[in-house]
Amino acid sequence: MNKWHEALEIIFSNLQPIEAAKMPIDDALSLVASEDALSPENLPAFDNSAMDGFAVRFSDCAGATEDSPVSLRVLEDLPAGRVAAQAVSAGAALRIMTGAVIPMGCDVVVPVEDTRPATDADEYVYILRTPKLKGNIRAAGEDIVAGQTVISEGQQVSAAHIGLMAALGISELLVIPPVKAAVITTGSELADVLEKPVAGKIRDANIHSLSAQIRSWGAVPIAFPRIADTRQAVESALEEAASLCDLLITTGGVSVGDYDYVKEVLNALGAKQHFWRVAQKPGGPFGFWTLWGKPFFGIPGNPVSAIVMAELYLKPAIYRMMGRKNVNYQRVAARLESGFRKTGADGKRHFLRVIADEREGKWTARLSGPQGSAQLASMRAANALAMIPEDTLEVPAGGEVELLLIKTNRASTYQWPNSPP
Ligand code: AMP
Ligand code: MG
User: Fold this and answer.
1) Distance from the CA of 256 to the center of ligand 1, in angstroms?
2) Which CATH architecture is the domain 4-18+178-324 placed in?
3) 194 and 257 in contact (C-beta within 8 Å)?
């Protein structure tokens, strides 16, 4: 039986990033660039005003103070989007708005705050302070010059990248597109959320929770019609899913029950099994295959197992296929308030649902509720998984555990595989 990090390594070594494609920049957020995009032009494209004020000649304003202001004749108004009809001549000014093109002859913009309108003659303005040469002029190319890199291959597209590309006229980018992940839930007992289940049936929780997780990672879940525990139903669902998706996930039917057909069908279809079973709890009866070149995750059906296994294995796999280098686990050491004791030396890594809390850099964790693998309420309350290693039988109350923070947007503090678990 593989340990957690061994299983992850096997998964990683059987994944490829999916093929890059040109995508509209509006669809590229958080995706990984597959090319270096170079700026086709200067940004800004022309010198323009950084302030609302007056476009003047520096030499006219030298020595201006509140007590001895310089008066200049205002020739025209220059809103953003318009080009001046005339140059700024000696003794003259143009009233200019933020973003307007700097007119010929102007070498400084005096902000409105440093001026006073002349009360006697409308077309005059008083300059009250000596400006700095070139002050308040945004020079062409001061943001980005033509030929400079806007985004490099391997970087994740941010909102700022998107804004910058738009400003530069780059409407599409070569990126690794979102993984299309088939979500196939198995179980003759499963009913739809809209149904009132008849005796013995339960509603299908996994199809919704898994799809939500996949969506939250920036991939695209494709939820297939849930299937009954028959060989034929499993087989036709897998065939269809493999033809449509980049990656396949089943929940349920992968254990040792009499109606667990997933392994058998995969075998019959010629899938390559990389492992089945991981030494962990919850989620142990988990398998990984390649079916016609597509990674296949056989996740056990218990709703907590499904969420935990997806978080531990599917998320880093999907990130890898989408070209990301980092696995976004944040790992911290914490005191486990209640302690924990395994019922026996099972050689398994336990992932406990806990509520983790940080005070002045010190973490504590307490169980978020009962730990049964079908008990979703304690999963809902958890913000971390506390790991009890394979060969640890007991952590005393207040003893140290390692946490995986699962509800966090903090940057990753470790990079797989440089510091293995
Ligand atoms: P299995 O892995 O198929 O043996 O299922 C293990 C347990 O999880 C059984 O109690 C199933 O009824 C339950 N289960 C399986 N699939 C789902 C699902 N999609 N939603 C909720 N419970 C499920
Ligand atoms: Mg089942």
Assistant:
1) 13
2) 3-Layer(aba) Sandwich (3.40)
3) no
Evaluate: CB of 209 within 6 angstroms of ligand 1: no
Residue 411 has pLDDT above 90, yes or no: no
| Superfamily covering domain 21-44+142-176 | Molybdopterin biosynthesis moea protein, domain 2 (3.90.105.10)
pLDDT the model gives residue 119: 79
Q: Is the C-beta atom of 301 inside 6 A of ligand 1?
A: yes
CA of 385 to the centre of ligand 2 (A): 25
Task: Tell whether ligand 1 has an atom less than 6 A from the beta carbon of residue 189.
Answer: yes
Say if residue 140 is exposed, middle or buried (CB neighbours under 10 Å; 0-12, 13-18, 19+): middle
302 CB near ligand 1 (under 6 Å): yes
Angle at 220 between CA 214 and CA 225, to 5 degrees: 90
How high is the mean pLDDT of the chain?
Answer: 95
Topology adopted by domain 330-415: Beta-clip (2.40.340)
pLDDT tens digit sequence for 234-249: 999 999 999 999 999 9
- Pair 279, 348: CB distance under 8 Å: yes
Q: Closest-lying ligand to the alpha carbon of 189?
A: 1
> What is the per-residue pLDDT across 255-278, written as a single tens digit (0 to 9) for each?
889 989 999 999 999 999 999 999
